[in-house]
Amino acid sequence: MSLPNINPTTTNSWKKLQEHFNQVNNMHMKDLFAQDSERANKFTIKWDDFYVDFSKNRITEETFKYLLELANEVKLKEAIESQFSGEKINQTEGRSVLHTALRAKKDAEFYVDGVNVIPEIYQVKHKIESFTNEVVNGDRKGFTGKPFTDIVNIGIGGSDLGPAMVVESLQYYKNHLTTHFVSNVDGDHVNEVIKKLNPETTLFVVVSKTFTTQETLSNANTIKDWFLKLATEDAIAKHFVAVSTNIESVKNFGIDQNNIFPMWDWVGGRFSLWSAVGLSISLAVGYDNFDSLLKGANKMDEHFKNEDFKTNIPVVLALISVWYNNFFKAESEAVIGYSQYLNQFATYLQQGIMESNGKSVDRNGDAIDYQTGTLIWGEPGTNSQHAFFQLIHQGTKLIPADFIGFVKSLHGNKNHQDKLISNFLAQTEALLNGKTKQEVIDEGTSKEIIPFKVFKGNKPTNTIFINKLTPKSLGKLIAMYEHKIFVQGIIWNIFSYDQFGVELGKQLASKILKEFNSDKITNHESSTNNLLEYYKKLR
Ligand code: F6P
């Protein structure tokens, strides 16, 4: 069975939403709150340690009803079942999509081509666990007999962003090992990292699903060459491990068979941090914390799979986002984490959301005439308040935003936490209410300045309030966005799990690389010819 194939714009609910939009698009959320004292309760989902308030959106009960109808009309329930049951819903690559299996319980069953993959997943998890314990406890040693002090994750895209974001987010839970990430093919990146390292005490984790990625192989080779200037060939077995589906190429690179952590083609790169791709997470925070991260994600999976759509957090967030994207024509969404630990969260989501849903052809291969993937961006609050919030408050663009906050701070500084959370709450209130001309006048503002101090308000936000940032709650949060991506892909009738759009640039880059040593370049259009010649002359 394949995914449903329904053009959302042909559904009854879409048509109802369009008509409804024409009636309500000018309404102010302030009025909606004034008319219904129960509004916040109606549009809040309390689940586990999550409190998700989506009442500060430009929706009414009618909007919500039609959005839920849309989910049913595009056969979302069936699509969810197809994904979880291991059907090859990544049709363009002929693959199942089973990152959810990676965090499933040991007695679960997930089938790929008739084979339950859970036992294999647990074998790899045990390997991650024992390897982590050996490194963290100092039982595994480098070539001069010293325990490891530093870990370097060498990877890019999904083989970098997920682990890097989680290690940053769970900094509080970190052990004594220092973790570094090398991703960019920019040699200055790898050199900046190398200069801090002692080869005797550094472990290198080369992560590449395909083991063909230019950036990762270049960085891994540069690091290997540097390492071999200071150590002998047999030391590689002690210092280099790899995570990949391409076992042969890993061996050809010179990595010991025992140091290979397998992954599978039914795990998409941007959804892979739950697999051995998360080895650097496990090393950084310990296996138990890594396992808690997985358990949290599994809890969100169960919620997503079983909960009614109207109280299903990823479904509701996805539907609201479609409302803005396709009816209000909002171009982008912001994600603002009120925690410095979430510093890299938006960057991580950029790949998840934009690589998955940045598509313009539907599941029939036909060009589509409605908007798909949103642009995603963000920085932590309160820093972002002093950077780009001006535009969200008073600019001309509609930017729906997710506000993510944690009730408790990790270091327990109540004074700072109260200030942080007062900002977290104040911003969504300010975005909702704005400030009227009368309020500006009442503040005693001089007449000529009044227009500049008026805020229209009516700017939508979701508040995702979580008790505490723990490995488990982070797992739930990441999985929540993964499922939101899936729901939106289903509604937009696109394939969310391929990424052919990144190939063309890669192919041209390898062609251009060969041309740097050739004579006069004339085979491109004049702009690229000129730029190439310019570089050749000055490099
Ligand atoms: O950018 C394209 C992409 O294929 C991503 O989807 C992936 O996460 C990244 O490259 C890295 O790929 P690999 O893990 O195979 O090196």
UniProtKB/TrEMBL annotation:
One of its GO terms (cellular component) is cytosol. Keywords: Cytoplasm, Gluconeogenesis, Glycolysis, Isomerase. One of its GO terms (molecular function) is monosaccharide binding. The keyword Isomerase applies. It is an enzyme of class 5 (isomerase). PROSITE patterns: P_GLUCOSE_ISOMERASE_1 (PS00765), P_GLUCOSE_ISOMERASE_2 (PS00174), P_GLUCOSE_ISOMERASE_3 (PS51463). Its EC number is 5.3.1.9. The active site is at E355, H386, K506. The keyword Protein transport does not apply. InterPro entries: G6P_Isomerase, G6P_Isomerase_C, Phosphoglucose_isomerase_CS, SIS_dom_sf, SIS_PGI_1, SIS_PGI_2. Pfam families: PGI. It is found in: Cytoplasm. It catalyses: alpha-D-glucose 6-phosphate = beta-D-fructose 6-phosphate. This is Glucose-6-phosphate isomerase. It comes from Wocania arenilitoris. The gene is pgi.
